[in-house]
Write a structure and sequence with these properties.
The protein is mainly beta. It has a single domain, classed as Immunoglobulin-like, CATH 2.60.40. The protein is 14% helix and 46% strand. The strands form three sheets. It has a four-stranded antiparallel β-sheet with strand order 1-2-5-4, with no helix packed on it. Strands 3-8-9 form a three-stranded antiparallel β-sheet, with no helix packed on it.
Length: 151
């Protein structure tokens, strides 16, 4: 009788463990999707802004996370071999409609020790980070092609 109760107890614990494991939450995955890049009047030798269309997508919000602002993003130059040493986010504009959210991230060469940097006559790779609550959640790398004779 004791063995039967023990086996029954182990069986019930095993069923509970399996049902708990099956109901474990799916981890939330977040990514930055880089869309179109509008160079506007930016060119080598000037510091005019470039606008990058960006969406921050997650398994919870596959149409894009809404309500973000400049404080949710950071940009950096991962390597300085392309002639770029500083880059800055000037502003972030939310573009929503049709049930989705994306952002115009406006970037330009940064200012260092009172000097305004200018776009270099070369390609450059940049990292764009998404932060939430001070924690880095996602990163995307994209390229800008800034050539004097580039259409």
């Amino acid at each position: 009788m004791k063995h039967t109760r023990l086996i029954l107890g182990i069986f019930i614990i095993a069923i509970l463990a399996i049902s708990t494991a099956d109901s474990a939450p799916t981890p939330v995955r977040t990514m930055i999707k880089i869309g179109s890049i509008d160079y506007g009047s930016a060119a080598p030798g000037n510091s005019e802004p470039v606008t990058i269309m960006v969406s921050v997508l997650s398994t919870v919000y596959p149409q894009g996370i809404c309500g973000l602002d400049k404080s949710n993003f950071k940009i950096e130059v991962p390597t300085h071999g392309f002639g770029y040493t500083a880059i800055a986010i000037k502003k972030v504009i939310e573009v929503s409609g049709g049930g989705s959210c994306s952002y115009k991230v406006v970037i330009a060469p940064g200012i260092y020790m009172g000097n305004q940097y200018k776009w270099a006559n070369s390609a450059g790779a940049f990292n764009l980070y998404y932060f939430k609550g001070g924690n880095q959640i996602a990163v995307a790398t994209f390229n800008l092609k800034m050539y004097a004779n580039w259409p």
